[in-house]
Amino acid sequence: MVLGRIGHALAPHSHDSADKTDAALETSSRGMRVLAISFAVLMATAAVQAAVVVASGSVALLGDTLHNLADALTAVPLAIAFSLGRRAANRRYTYGYGRAEDLAGIVIVALIAASAALAGYEAVRRLLEPQEIRNVGWVAVAALIGFAGNEWVARYRIKVGREIGSAALVADGLHARTDGFTSLAVLLGAGGAALGLRLADPVVGLLITVAICFVLRDAAREIYHRLMDAVDPALVDDAERILATVDGVRRVESVRLRWIGHALLAEVELLVDHDVSVVVAHRIAVEAEHRLIHDLPRLRAATVHTDPDGPDGADHHASLTPHRVSGRDPSRRG
């Protein structure tokens, strides 16, 4: 039946050309490069701080060093994820291996939690058994080095993360920026120690532990959203506006977006005039996908389904109604 074929015209024209494949590989390569450089910078920073911890006995600086070390180690699971993400999709992993970034995120959350627990333990122990801080000047210098190293890494990760569309890399950059400010907090402990306040150092250590816990909360929330296929609602609004401008689209029925690693995928349902040919419906779907891929940032592929709008009273999905989940998609119009 002509109407039925028009109503279910599918156009999964993915634009998976050699250029898009090369672009995907390039984004992963840039991500790997950022991780390698930032790992080296943060490990060098942590090494300098660790040496001062041994010489000074500062528990605040110890907490900051552990935090910086954990931040450096987050590069390992992310590097593995970027490497896996370059593999081609296959019959088992039909969407590819981009989800490895989300698994890496879980490892990152665990590392942050471990650094918070260890820093908190050491701070409490020093509160119960206060100790004099030695080489206070070196503690202050190490704190400044920690801030400078983290701020440089933060800017680098955030810049490249936004350019390649990697939320994990951007989040890791924001994490590094927070680490930089906790490094500055160590200066307070060093200043208090210089004034003879023996509890200043462990108190600042506890404050740093609290700061790490806030970072942990934000990181866990970000990973939870990715695991639950959450996207910014503004992206859905943008996609609907783009689709509404396509010639031949009467109404945007639904838009579903999901992240696979640092790539965005879309599934779209459109209403078109019920008496157009299959060829015309197909052309509308192709144009809709083309507009989305070019105008929606970081969208790599879209599957567009066209449904007939009319005639009045017709239900082109009647046979599917009993099989569909109750309730309507919040993005669905009408």
Present the secondary structure layout.
Elements: H1 2-7, E1 9-11, H2 18-56, H3 59-73, H4 75-85, H5 100-128, H6 136-164, H7 167-194, H8 200-227, H9 233-244, E2 249-260, E3 263-273, H10 278-295, E4 299-309
Parallel strand pairs: 3-4
Antiparallel strand pairs: 1-4, 2-3
Helix pairs in contact: 2-3, 2-4, 2-6, 3-5, 3-6, 3-7, 3-8, 4-5, 5-8, 6-7, 7-8
**Radius of gyration, rounded?**
26 Å
Which bin fits the share of residues in helices?
55-70%
- Regions with little confidence, pLDDT below 50 for 5+ residues: 1-23
Please state how the strands of the largest beta sheet are arranged side by side: 1-4-3-2
Shape, per Cα inertia axes? elongated
Number of domains: 2
How far is it from the N-terminal to the C-terminal residue, by CA?
A: 26 Å
H/E series, N to C? HEHHHHHHHHEEHE
Biggest sheet architecture:
4 strands, mixed
Strand element count: 4
Content-based structural category: alpha+beta
Tell me the name of the CATH class of the largest domain.
Mainly Alpha
Look at the structure and give the mean pLDDT: 79
Strand content: 5-15%
Tally the helices: 10
Q: What is the CATH architecture assignment of the largest domain?
A: Up-down Bundle
CATH fold type of the largest domain: Alpha-lytic protease prodomain-like
